[in-house]
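The freezer alarm interrupted the setup, so I double-checked each line after restarting. Inputs confirmed:
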Amino acid sequence: MFLSVGVRFEANVEALNMVETAGNYTKHRRVPYLVEEDGKLKTVYVPAISGESLAHAYQWSLVKEALGMNLPVCEDCAKGEFFKSMNKAHLKKKIDPIPDDSKKIEATIIKSCVIEDVGGFLYAEKPPVRRSSAFQVSYALPIKSMALFATAEPQLHARHAQMDAKGKKGNVSEQMIYYVETGTALYGFTFNLDLDAIGVSSLGAGPIVPEEEIRARREASLKALFRMLSSAQFGAKLSRFFPVGGITELTVVVTEHPFVVTSPIYDSYIERTKKRLEVIKEAFREEYFFDSTNEVPEEVLRKAIEYLKEKGYV
Amino acid sequence: MAYPLLHIAGDRTETLEPKRNARSSADRIRPLIEWTTLKVSGKPRVYGSILKINRLHRGSVESAVTSFPMAVMYGESDYTLTLLYLLNDDLIRASEFSVKDFERAAWGISRIGSRESVISVESVELGKGRIMEKEIAETAYAFPLTGKKVQGNGVVQGVIDWKEGIGNYSKARIMVMFYPEGKVKVEGRLRVIDVGEEVVL
Ligand SMILES: [Zn+2]
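Predicted 3D structure, all chains:
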């Protein structure tokens, strides 16, 4: 089973993805958008949130869901440090001595950590062992029809300190000013989850953990998405720049084999997704789950999980 | 294409022969595909952004500025890529897959490119084609440039020859491909196949 989710959310004055600091100026991540003006292509920069940033948030949600369900999470991942058994030093925490059989290495990692099972890993030593992530996430980009209204605007802030005149040395200042570039946009992004990949070897060795635990791991993966979206716990600087707004639209599709919702950056994405699903049903006799809302996103996510429960998938 | 196709087959293998020279399991379906190419709607723009690379490693900080040119094609218009897969009926019949499996897999292509961006397939068409010899043709699809004369604009790029194997690219041969901007006129000893209004070389 393959889950694909399209999310639209409004975020005003957010600092969800900052990229670099030049002096006292912290920049928001931006991407170029091509627009046509008098028959010529012009590049405009719009605020964006990287897929890496969203993926980190998702995996952090997954840590909490997995631990809450008594599923294994390794020491590194439990701290939110997703090293993913990248070298001997990190893999040794899971198995010591390290075997030279890639299948044994893979099995050890999958058994000991749900995050690396779902989020993939790369052990970059001899023998190298890799596993693709079972979930995929796009960048969050301003939706096309309103992209030109998306802005990134620096906000001036000041930090004050009371200083003893005697203690004042040279050019130490009592006031420090700094700028945080904030973005405002209606964003869209896509999230996919290949449920069949969970708990199963990517080296052709079949299921690595018992069927019952695979179902539990799938459930944790779904709940993690639920919680990440519902709590808006993704991106950075949430403590002072929590975005004003929220999810405006959410579309969830579950199909037997891979199928990706039309990107929510297009205004017609719901209609287009529905039409494409009809083809899948007609031509390939494949059942599917589809639901979409601009009201209560939690309700749609709940229904999707219920559908998968009925199918015996979680 | 390999990812959704192997998903349909219930095969979760993504790395073949992990011990010796690891290859992608896409290599399993490579012999079934005679040729593949693509066309691009609109004009991608190549631009170079200046990136500051900072690397922190256990206390020592390295910093460098680099220019990172890349093609951009997102923005106001709805840019699309059209992928074309040329399949050989006889080979497919002899394989564990059917043409229908390939058709469903095409709907399931979820990632594309070297960094595997998330995409959605908006339509799939299936047709029969006949290979013909020609000396002159117009095409919008990318083709190997060697031995051909081209009239029109496009981008020339050295790419990995996927027909030699997928996954182990360190020693792979490079072929020179021409990516047309709109349609171009090509002269040479051509093998072409009709696809609707245009041809594929
Ligand atoms: Zn881990």
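Quick read of the result. Chain B touches chain A at residues 3-4, 7-8, 11-15, 18-19, 22, 43, 45, 47, 49, 52, 54, 72-78, 100, 103-105, 107-111, 116-124 (CB under 8 Å).
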